[in-house]
Write a structure and sequence with these properties.
Blueprint lengths: L1 H7 L3 E5 L5 E9 L4 H18 L5 E11 L1 H18 L2 E4 L3 H13 L12 H38 L6 H11 L4 H23 L8 H39 L2 H7 L4 H40 L3 H11 L2 H27 L5 H32 L3
Parallel strand pairs: 2-3, 3-4
Antiparallel strand pairs: 1-2
Length: 386
């Protein structure tokens, strides 16, 4: 019967559980047209192995195979994996050099086994914390190195301003600054409106409505104006920097620049950093004005505080240091946002998934670091009495 099957080109699969290790004999022709028969034979063999539970593994004898293509090789490898799951280790026997080479080629193209989820427990949690801490430390070191390179390039520009790429600088100033004016102004205006409305509701209970001017002025000028502006710019510019530089990294344009003798830090990063450092204080100033206008308008509507009274109260009772403290933060916020955006762009790998992940990560990191910096500045100015 087996000889007739070989002559007809049909595959055969015999299972012998009476020997140790268990023996499976594959024979005939294993090609793509026989895949349905092969699947049936494979399920039967797996069921027998599962019932017999051989303790010493399985030998897959392929000495009687007369024909094999990539589909047949895929079946053999899939069968071996299935049998390993049922009865232990599988080893091949009777393979000719030709069949062995085909199996190796197909096996190299098969996807690997999916990663096994880590076992829950304190050790796994501790391992995860360690990996995250190590990655965060490595990121801090790499960002510090990039910051040092940027500072060196900027110091060099002081002595040789002609090396600065003015066209790129103006272009990025428009992208990160002028184009952001509408959203920053609207955001700050609405924040001023909300502060005035909520402040009026609370202060009216104590008959201290006039102090809403102090509330608006200190909140906008010292904290909210520049902080919310930096958060909006982080969402816009950090992601844009990462996407632009990351796309160039994917297309190997940065490697091409190095081949041509161009410095990517000077060409790509320094103009972006300088543009953001110049434009963020201007955007912060615009946000302060818009916030004060929104607060004055709502104070006029809800409390009857006229614009003249609002300006007089603002001028008499608001220390100029409130405005100065807010503006002092702006260059540091700008440098942080630009550094994070450019760093994540340089870390993009050669696929779109990496670009998307790095872009999202740059926004989250930039916003987080801006808030941390704002907290540090608040503690510092409280300690120095400002």
């Amino acid at each position: 019967m087996n000889g007739q099957a070989f002559a007809d080109g049909f595959p055969t699969l015999e299972v012998d559980l009476g020997v140790r290790p268990a023996l499976l004999r594959l024979g005939g022709v294993l090609r793509i047209r026989h895949l349905p028969e092969l699947e049936t034979l494979g399920r039967g063999a797996a069921a027998q192995i599962a019932a017999g539970k051989p303790a010493e593994g399985i030998v897959l004898d392929m000495s009687q195979i007369h024909g094999l293509d990539t589909a047949g090789a895929w079946f053999v490898l899939s069968l071996a994996r299935r049998l390993e799951a049922e009865g232990g280790a599988v080893r091949f026997a009777g393979l000719s050099a030709q069949w062995q080479g085909l199996l190796d080629t197909v096996e190299a193209s098969l996807p690997g086994a999916p990663p096994q989820p880590g076992r829950p427990g304190f050790i796994c949690w501790l391992e995860h914390i360690g990996e995250a801490t190590s990655g965060a430390w490595r990121t801090c070191v790499e960002m510090s190195n990039l910051l040092g390179e940027i500072i060196v390039r900027c110091v060099g520009l002081v002595f040789n301003p002609l090396r600065l790429r003015w066209t790129a600088l103006v272009h990025h100033m428009q992208a990160v600054g002028f184009d952001a004016v509408p959203i920053v102004s609207l955001m700050a205006f609405l924040i001023g409106v909300v502060l005035a409305f909520q402040g009026a509701v609370q202060l009216r209970q104590f008959g201290a409505e006039i102090f809403v001017v102090d509330l608006i002025a200190i909140s906008i000028l010292r904290e909210l104006g520049i902080l919310l502006t930096a958060i909006i710019v982080a969402g816009r510019s950090a992601s844009a920097f990462t996407a632009a530089i990351g796309s160039m990294k994917m297309r190997e344009e940065i490697d091409a620049m190095r081949t041509l003798g161009l410095d990517p830090v000077s060409v790509l990063i320094v103009p972006r950093v300088l543009a953001l450092v110049i434009m963020l204080p201007i955007l912060g100033f615009i946000a302060d004005l818009a916030g004060l206008i929104g607060g004055a308008l709502m104070s006029w509507i809800t409390l009857g505080v006229s614009p003249e009274m609002f300006v007089a109260r603002l001028w008499d009772d608001t220390d100029v240091w409130q405005f100065v403290i807010g503006m002092v933060k702006a260059p540091f916020f700008a440098l942080t946002i630009a550094l994070v955006g450019c760093y994540e762009g340089l870390k993009v790998e050669g696929n779109a998934e990496s670009l998307g992940a790095r872009t999202s990560r740059s926004v989250v990191e930039a916003i987080f670091l801006v808030i941390v910096l704002d907290a540090v500045f608040s503690i510092f100015f409280a300690l120095v009495g400002k």
